[in-house]
Amino acid sequence: MKGKIMLSEAYPVDILEDDPEGYQVAAQTYYELLREGAQTSTEVISLSTGEQVRLETSSLCFCTLYRDEPQHKILVLVNPQDTKTVVAVYLKESWWSVEHVLRTSDPTRQGLMKVQSFGERIVLFVLNTIVFGRLERRLDSDDMFFLPHPAKEQAKVLWRDGAAVGFYSIKMKGSLCGDGTGACYLLPVFDTVFVRRKNRCQGLGTAMLRDFCDTFHGDEALGISCPISPAMYKVLRQFLLTCPGERGRLWEVDPPGAWGQRVNIWLKVYLRERTRQDGSTVHPKCSEEDTDTPRQTSQDDGPTHFNQGESHRNGSLENQRGHRMTNNVSKLGYP
């Protein structure tokens, strides 16, 4: 039944066709019917937490799905007590809780898998913009979200036990560094990464770094987007201790990644360890810490302000780019 939240074993990533325009038209039609009173607005949606949210147009808004294609949007239900928190997504004429959007019934969907289908793009969006953007981090500003990935961003989602638990994205060699620039990346760059809070400290961050290096095994140099947080350095330190053959390949880079914009990561780790040892020459000791936080460090990142449902006549949520963050580390969760 339309408007009901789905609890079945079939999940969006498994059943969505690659028809984003069709789903958007259906969502817009549903919203208009609800707003005009042609469809009941007294329905209550029960979430997995036991919380109940009344389905009203004042709690609905359209979110921009892709950073570079603002015409593509999805309809979401927000918590009326906290209108920056999304609790459900409207897909295939049904409401799906955030947790169900991140699940799969396909047993072959396991480990790191490249994002290809529209359903996988939805999963990436939910992990990045909804889970990291609001549910699993503290916001410095209550009206700030982070921009979604571009429509054709290269990314992999990490699947574990039937659920999406993390992702990482890549700036490909030859891809544009950002809006309004003709500069292109000169090497592959590990750009954004996130692991859900409940799955951290399990080595998943280092596993994604290993996958990134293996994917581009033929490249002599690989980048990690600058700046890198202290927490992310701990992950890189652990990875490079385990994989010494990669020490000469990983560089902290500013776009586009010319040699003057690169700093060897192992050298920085080594120098930090040496400083801690009061000047004695030692190699970094192995750290057991492998925590996870998302990072968004590409050149054109910035905060997105969400204007809610009824504030626009068409019920859309505008994606307004604010000032560029002066400290991109605040956007970084570490694996």
From TrEMBL:
Ranges annotated as biased composition (Polar residues): 294-309, 316-335
Location of the region described as Disordered in the Swiss-Prot/TrEMBL record: 278-335
SUPFAM superfamilies hit by this protein: Acyl-CoA N-acyltransferases (Nat) (SSF55729)
Domain of life: Eukaryota
Coiled coil: none
PANTHER family: PROTEIN FAM169BP (PTHR22442:SF4), PTHR22442
Designated name of the protein: Family with sequence similarity 169, member B
Organism of derivation: Rattus norvegicus (Rat)
